[in-house]
Design a protein that fits this description.
Elements lengths: L7 H8 L5 H12 L9 H8 L3 H10 L5 H15 L3 H10 L6 H19 L2 H12 L5 E4 L5 H14 L3 E3 L7 H7 L5 E5 L6 H12 L3 E6 L12 E4 L12 H17 L1 H18 L6 H14 L26
Parallel strand pairs: 1-2, 1-3, 3-4, 4-5
Helix pairs in contact: 2-3, 3-4, 8-12, 9-12
Length: 329
């Protein structure tokens, strides 16, 4: 079973209220450029934070580590995990793969990801993000990386139906300045950024935040550098027995937000949906229900008796394939 451990940043945040003034100063320094800020010598870390080396030693023990060496070892392990490429991820899982079917192993990993994520997810932060996304006075922008761009597009596709003033940003970073130009203070930027974090995302977040834009971040347990600029951050467990990280739980949180936003102003959402359905009808974008097509064809047959009426019969060769039940052992 995949049990993603707490990161050092999680531990620091959990103990923050119990730290002394100097230790809080050190903690803020470590989190400001995490995890790189903690990879130097104990003297360097102390100097960068403006505290003494004994303060560093005391704080890491207060966090539960035996000493600075163990504290730093955890940071190195996290850094290695965030930089893992697909081959390294696959080899790690394959070396420990039990003799059960991949469906069972994958399902177990995903369900554990769900439990881990929900246990750490702050409902108040979720509600706060939903309120930002529900505010029709704010424009909402969506952007993702090479893989997570699909999640950004999925989120945007639903949100543009629910509310106006939404935009999907291109994966081409050269187009981002034009998007930032259109952003106003109070607008919302939804960013998807998981390991191996894309450097341009942090720059985008920094510039947008400086302009008063609220940032909602979807990331992983190790946390994208964008997190320090985010108003709301969803750290989602993504480990799976695969060369690729799993997006299942990220999509779950996205869909929960979609429901929260559409329910916040359902009358307006329903009106937009009805209007959109009318546009789809005009564009003949979707197939009509079977019964409706039959009725319309019947009306056409009555008005044009000399023309043979079309049928709803499925053409030979297009019959549905017989179902095959797959039994997982």
């Amino acid at each position: 079973m995949n049990n993603t451990p707490k990161t050092v940043s999680d531990v620091i945040r959990a103990h923050f209220d119990g730290l002394t003034r100097a230790e809080r100063q050190l903690a803020e320094s470590l989190l400001d450029n995490y995890p790189v800020s903690g990879l130097g010598s104990i003297t360097t870390v102390a100097e960068n934070a403006g505290v003494s080396t004994p303060t560093v030693a005391r704080m890491v023990q207060k966090l539960g580590y035996k000493g600075y060496a163990e504290f730093q070892a955890h940071l190195h392990h996290e850094l290695e995990a965030t930089l893992s490429n697909p081959i390294a991820k696959h080899d790690r899982w394959a070396s420990n793969a039990p003799g059960t079917h991949i469906l069972n192993r994958f399902a177990e990993a995903v369900m554990n990801n769900m439990r881990q994520t929900l246990s750490a997810l702050d409902p108040q932060s979720f509600d706060g993000a939903a309120r930002l996304l529900s505010d029709r006075k704010r424009s909402v922008y969506f952007v993702g990386g090479r893989i997570t761009g699909a999640l950004a597009e999925y989120f945007f596709t639903h949100m543009q139906v629910i509310r106006p003033k939404t935009a999907l940003m291109s994966s081409n970073t050269s187009a981002w300045p034009q998007n930032v130009l259109n952003m106003s203070a109070g607008d919302v930027l939804v960013i998807f950024d998981i390991r191996r974090y894309e450097a341009d995302m942090e720059t985008l977040a920094e510039v947008a935040r400086a302009g008063g834009v609220e940032i909602i971040l979807f990331t992983d347990p190790w946390s994208s550098p964008v997190a320090k600029h985010a108003s709301h951050c969803f750290r989602v467990d993504i480990e799976a027995p695969s060369a690729w990280d799993s997006s299942v739980v990220t999509l779950f949180v996205v869909e929960a937000l979609i429901e929260a936003v559409q329910s916040s102003a359902w009358d307006e959402t329903r009106e937009r949906m009805n209007t959109l359905e009318g546009l789809f009808e005009q564009a003949r974008l979707f197939r009509k229900p079977r019964g409706q097509k039959t009725r319309e064809r019947g009306e056409q047959a009555r008005t044009k008796p000399d023309e043979p009426a079309a049928t709803d019969d499925v053409a030979e060769g297009c019959q549905p394939a017989p179902s095959h039940k797959y039994h997982v052992s």
